[in-house]
Amino acid sequence: MSETAKKRIEELTEKINRHDHEYHVLDRPTISDIEYDRLVQELVELERKYPEYAREDSPTKRIGGEVLEGFAKVEHSVPMLSLSNAFDADELRAFDQRLKKIVDNVTYVVEPKIDGLAASLFYEDGEFVRAATRGNGTVGEDVTHNVRTIKSVPLRLKEPVTIEVRGEIFMPKAAFLSWNETKEQQGKELFKNPRNAAAGSIRQLDSRIAAQRALDMFIYGVAERDEEARIPQHEVLKRLQRLGFKVNERIMEASDIEEAIRICEKFEFLRTDLPYDIDGAVIKVDERPLYKTIGYTAKSPRWAIAYKFRAEEAMTRIEDIRLQIGRTGQVTPVAHLSPVEIAGSTVARATLHNEDYIRGKDIRIGDFVTIRKAGDIIPEVVAVVEEKRSGDEEQFRMTGECPKCETPLRKSDTEAETFCPNPDCPSKRVQGFIHFASREAMDIEGLGIRIMEHFYNEGFITSISDIYRLRDHKEKLVGLARFGERSVEKLLANIEASKDRSLEKLLFALGIRHVGKKTAESLAKRFPSIEHLREADFEDVLSVEDVGEKIAASVKAYFEDEKNLEMLDELDSLGVNMRHKGAAETKGHFEGLTFVLTGSLSSLTRQEAQKMIEARGGKVTSSVSKNTDYVCAGENPGSKLEKARSLGVDIIDEQELLAMLGNTKE
Ligand code: IVH
Description:
Layout: H1 2-25, H2 33-49, E1 73-75, E2 85-86, H3 89-102, E3 108-114, E4 117-124, E5 127-133, E6 139-141, H4 144-147, E7 163-170, H5 173-185, H6 194-202, H7 207-211, E8 216-222, H8 233-243, E9 252-254, H9 257-270, E10 278-285, H10 291-294, E11 304-308, E12 314-325, E13 331-342, E14 345-351, H11 355-361, E15 368-374, E16 378-384, E17 410-411, E18 418-419, H12 426-437, H13 449-457, H14 474-477, H15 485-498, H16 503-509, H17 517-526, H18 530-535, H19 538-542, H20 549-560, H21 562-573, E19 594-598, H22 606-615, E20 619-621, E21 630-633, H23 639-647, E22 650-652, H24 654-660
Parallel strand pairs: 2-11, 19-20, 19-21, 21-22
Antiparallel strand pairs: 1-6, 3-9, 3-10, 4-5, 4-7, 7-8, 10-11, 12-13, 12-15, 13-14, 15-16, 17-18
Bound molecules: 2-(butylsulfanyl)adenosine.
């Protein structure tokens, strides 16, 4: 028996690692999330029974759990150097000229310069054994426990080689944005940019934290002494890829410096569209056997150079500081700037967050400031240019009245935040509608800030459900400022299409306090329809992953407010979907739920129902207890139904079960 277990553990480890590689490195998954989860579940259980057979490269070792007391030091076998910089094409030509004085002819490899943090990974006989940060270049810190959680880092290579590789750990832009969005919802501190996010995550002693941060890693080279360098850089990269590493797919070869310059410019153009941050391009001589001859300066190799993209900073003047009221009533001071071009777009506003921020940077109305796009995305004020002060600048104080409804503003308990206490403040309401229609929420293209404000001012949208009544005003909408028939039709079609969104989108869209995108997803996974969530008690909501007391209380309060219930009923009768969809693609949709089936079902057998529940991560047991989450009652249910009633267990019928399974036999 144990021999079979050992074999199965081997098989599963290899299979899951292959799927991880296909998903995280090649971006080409070949199985569904459910099948994947099932394999992992099986492995977890087998390893629990036979821990002695768990392999070092087991995917279960990526979950995190190891907590260190401090970081051990790691001495780098080959120093981790930095690169010298070039800021324009002429400096790159000068670099090429310098090289030509040393060697006859060279070709280049041009790589995106990933904006994260460098790390070195060490493999022994193909097994991942250690990862270290760059540190001072000679000695770094051991971060093996955290790097192990990065799914694109292979734990075992395709060949049993002993090798040290170098690369860049980063946080993808989407992960950074969604992390910050969640933190903002929770009123917690945000990461400044994806690089800080990656660096902060990798320097955690507790690997469970790093495991949650969706880090990724590109490998761009080997740590080898120059005497050993036999093959060109482009071959090294191919070999790294064959060994199972994630190598950047944009890397290109150039036969001379002019071609390399064109590639750098192409990267700069592509920059905003890439899913990760790059801050430049790295040009490396392709002929590695020449590295020893070309040599080094004190800190960097002479065979490579970093082309840094045009400065992302610009100077401009703060014309005014105005208050913006968010959908929760929170007041944010916003700098209105003389419009300025940064990285291909015009910036006219930058958030100043709160009063502390303004005071910390001593920002005044009329000041000249430098502006930058944090993480290449969000404009922020870097600093005041003090030399340009004339003395006429005005201090800003966040007091007085709401600029929209003139209600006196209030400070929060901690005094850190200011808010408008008026529940009917038009600003709050419009912001709430805008949020409802936004991309991450109901995703109604064409219903952005400007149009929404317009419709609100014209009286077409004064509640969320009015969005779905716009079609009744089609004639009147045509002709509204710059709105033609075609665009009205398009907008109305987009609104209709949004009725079909899955529950998590609707939950997020409602703007329930503290319910961000992730929480909405967890709630929708646990409660298959809004009806279920509406009826859930505090404990039920609290038992959902990532939901703490504050969130649970807020969810309960939302569903206790008559106005909200009325609005939801209206949305329901207007045809807005209130159910969780796509159960088949959802990972562990029924994870942690226990069902009891009783009585006979009409459209499927009990065995079929059991299989479907289990395929979604749920459990089916034969007797009802207080641990049962749902009893599904068919025809002639008998005593189990009585027991469920007496224990207060949720009772559902066949139709409801089918709906929860994501089967539309309704
Ligand atoms: S080569 C001596 N290649 O840039 C070789 N570095 O300023 C140095 N970086 O510390 C590394 N992408 O953190 C290289 N494709 C790439 C890179 C890259 C990002 C970072 C790395 C390094 C820094 C050098």
